[in-house]
Amino acid sequence: MRDETWQALDDLFSATPILKADEVASDEIAAAEREVGVALNEDYKEFVRRYGGAIVGPFRVFGLRKAVPMGKNEASFVEVTKSFRRQRWPAVEKWAVISMDHGGNPVGLDEAGKVWISDHDARAVQVIAANFEEYLRKKCLSLPD
Question: Which residue intervals of the chain are DSSP H helices?
Fold first, then answer.
C-alpha cells in the first residue's frame, strides 16, 4: 500500500484508538490463511499485523482481533468466513471474508487480491475494488485515487 494510505489509517487510529485492535504475529496470520484456504495479499496481511482488526470509516474490517466497538463474533476473519460458508452464500468458498456491508452482505478477498461482494438483495456477486487498498481508500476512508 502507498505510504499515504498507511498514514491515513495511522491518523484515524491515533485520533480514535478504540477503533483498532492489537497487533498480530505473522505466524498466526499464516495459520489463519491456511485454515480458510485462501492466499491473502500482502497489504491485507500487513493491515492485520498492524491493527489486528478495525473499524475503518463506516465498515468493520475483520482481522484476527476485535476492536472494542465491533460485534461479539467479529474478531476473526476465519470465523466470519466459516459462518458465511456454512450459510452457503454464493462465491464465499473462494474468499476470505474481510468485511460486511450495512446490509449484512459479505465482502471478500480472493487469491488474486480482488475485493468482492455477495449481495443477497441484488442476487449478484461482483468485484467492488481491484485490491484491498482500493477498498480501504474508496469504500472506507473516502480518499481520492
Answer: 3-15, 26-36, 42-51, 77-86, 132-134
Q: What does the pLDDT read at residue 30?
A: 98
* Grid cell digits, residue 64: 484476527
* pTM value > 0.85: yes
Dihedral angle, C-alpha 49, 50, 54, 58, nearest 10 °: -120
Q: What is the Cα–Cα distance from 44 to 111, expressed in whole angstroms?
A: 11
CB 53 within 8 A of CB 61: yes
Q: Which three cell numbers stand for residue 100?
A: 460486511
User: Strands 106-109 and 96-100, how do they pair?
Assistant: antiparallel
Mean pLDDT by 10 residues, the chain (145 residues): 98 98 98 97 98 98 97 94 96 97 96 96 93 97 91
